[in-house]
Write a structure and sequence with these properties.
The protein is mainly α. It is built from 21 helices and no strands. The radius of gyration is 23 Å and the shape is globular.
Amino acid sequence: MTLPDNSQTIHLSEVVGALSFALDITEGQPPGHSLRSCWIGMHLGMQLQLSPEELSDLYYTLLLKDIGCSSNAARICKLYLTDDLDFKRGYKSVNDSLPQILRFVIANTGTRSGLAERFQAIINIARNGGEISRELIETRCHRGADIARQMRFSEPVQRGILDLDEHWNGKGQPVGLIGETISLYARIALLAQVADVFHTQAGPAAALAEVQLRAGSWFDPALVMAFGLVDDQPGFWAMLSSDTLSEAVIALEPAALTRHVDEDYLDDIAAGFAQVIDAKSPFTGGHSDRVALFADMIAEELGFTPQRRRWLKRAALLHDIGKLGVSNSVLDKPGKLDDDEWAAIKQHPALGETILSRIAAFQDLAVIAGAHHERLDGKGYPRGLGETELGLETRIVTTADIFDALTADRPYRGPLPVSKAFEIMTEGLGISIDPLCLDALQRGIAQMERSAA
């Protein structure tokens, strides 16, 4: 495979804007939620006459506000006995009203469980709802801020992500900050998020009405006043449903502060989003990093150049990004999947390919994400590709992925010994696993074991 030409300038806004679609699906939101929130929030920032430096930090806060969102998905499924994607989608419409919260919890807890199990879950939530909410939001916000730091974003951006769920009246989470002690970027991002959710559901009038209703409780009254002025700007709402929204959002980044991405930064972005992917399930912690390690081990044994190995490691780190769109009720199910659940699993490679193909620098990686569950005999998914259609890089990632799946904890079994994993993989030679890749992996693991002895 010819390596991509990254000699052309790569803008950080293009990369982060495209990857934000992965955050949207993890939050159960219609694709483009982060971009729409960015459009709304940046217009608020401009209405407030923020400096270019402040607008630049606001821009990335808005695009990355949900970067910690995958970290509480499994916990939501466990506590509420529900689909985390549906739960998150609906919860974004709930305000501070206790009757509304109770109605939502009752309607969305344990809907597929037995009556006794469902009632027990509802009682547990009723007794411990405040602590449960604080725990879920604290996990999400702190994880998001940590990942933003590792991806080189400034302290103000990290703080904006950390404070996202704090409310003006001090009744938000996780700390209960009040008024102007809350990051301005977080105040803007929360308002923009709510405005997009209600606009998507019912149009501009509903969005404005909901924002005004929450003035002084959730939202800074001065921001609500500014939003009323933004609401009147010609074309403001129309852009949210325009096919040119992505380009319009990229153009909102302050021109003098446009951030460029080099090879090292692309590595950091891939590593950061690998953490988002792996946080989705307790059974996938470190999975992407290990697949990248095993893939690199195979590539080294096969004599890949350092540049080609670097590119392959990025592909391995991001190969499972489509899993962000699969409910944890499916990913973490200990028993056999039913037909609908299996269909949901089989969608994740194509979804990952769609997300990565939005980024020029990652378009070649997208091919691997889309094909890492294909088989040499043509019986894989999602497209049933065969041996002649699967490149060596894809075969390497597939081999590394299978090896880690066998030797790691899974909801339906414990980890297998390396020897047993190789025995199972040997049975799949020429069917699902390339012999060249397995041989290289075995040599690499043997070398690692000798070094550790």
